[in-house]
Amino acid sequence: MKKFADTPFLPTEVEIEAISDTQAKVTAYPFESGFAITLAHPLRRLLLSSSVGYAPIAVKIEGASHEFDSLRGMLEDIAIFIINLKNIKFKISGDEEQVVAEYSFDGPKEIKGSDLANSNVEIVSPEVHLATINSDCNLTFSVIIQKGIGYMPSEDIRDMVSNDYIPIDAFFTPVKKVVYNIEKMLVEDNPNFEKAVFDIQTNGQISPIDAFKEAVSVMYAQMSVFNKVFDLSEVTVSDSGEEPLELKDLVVKIEDLNLSARSFNSLDRSGLKFLGELVLMSEVEVKNIKNLGKKSFDEIAEKLDSLGFPIEDSLPENIASALRRKLEQLKA
């Protein structure tokens, strides 16, 4: 029998398929008709515009003063060298926002992306060609690698670097492609529910799953502006006469859960401080916590079940949203 609805239906399932290190599919369902695209379109935009990446922003080449110069013994003109450099995908190894990488090569040699890896930077496009130099050439140069989002033209970078550096257009976005499909699905006897399927590809600077998590985090952060007017930080839900679930039940510190030292240390090293952080994670995400063995996983799953948060279940989205905001405040 049909029922009158007084709230929109909340999706409950998320599936993650890692196709490769640079491609993944994320599927969420079931949505009421029209809700899937309402979520999917802004997430796609955020993935393409707000994902954090790395790019060379300036280069200093010994013996060259500008981008229209040439260097004795190097096959490529400086302009071609810079184009090739922009095609190499760097990744800063530590937590720094910016590093300066210095290089010196003697010919004859074909220089590729793999030759630029050092203790400060990783190269995720090792086969990309940079330059060819002959036996008469010594190529010495330094590159400024910057962490950022979006795009910044070289004109804006000019005033940020010293005059002996040539500024470079910076393309930070690590997400190469995002496609979403909205598929119809049957829920009970209603064929009008929807499934949102995201296909995400990155250049290797960030995993597609991490890029998706960043986009969701940015979306929540953008919407938090409404907390200034509407108190959305504390939410309780009553379902079928049960006691309401309060956020205070989910912000218990992990150190107070009486877990074994091995399990606690694995969670602590991963930066997890509160019960709610575990409850928000899927079973796959918990299993993928670094250095978390099967016994520790079983202990954590048993503890969550005893507290009323089975690891295979997920929170209603309004509770999950409020919990994420609360955790951000506690960890700020």
The description of the largest β-sheet is:
4 strands, antiparallel
**Number of beta strands:** 14
Count every helix, treating DSSP H or I runs of 4 or more residues as helices: 9
| Dominant shape | elongated
Intertermini distance? 48 Å
Helix coverage percent:
25-40%
Radius of gyration (CA) equals: 25 Å
Spans where pLDDT lies below 50 across 5 or more residues: 235-244
| Average pLDDT figure | 88
The helix-and-strand class reads alpha+beta
H and E string: EEHEHEEEEEEEHEEEEHHHHHH
Q: Roughly what fraction of the amino acids lie in strands? A: 25-35%
Compact overview of the structure:
The chain has 332 residues and is an alpha+beta fold. The protein is built from 9 helices and 14 strands. 25% of the residues are buried.
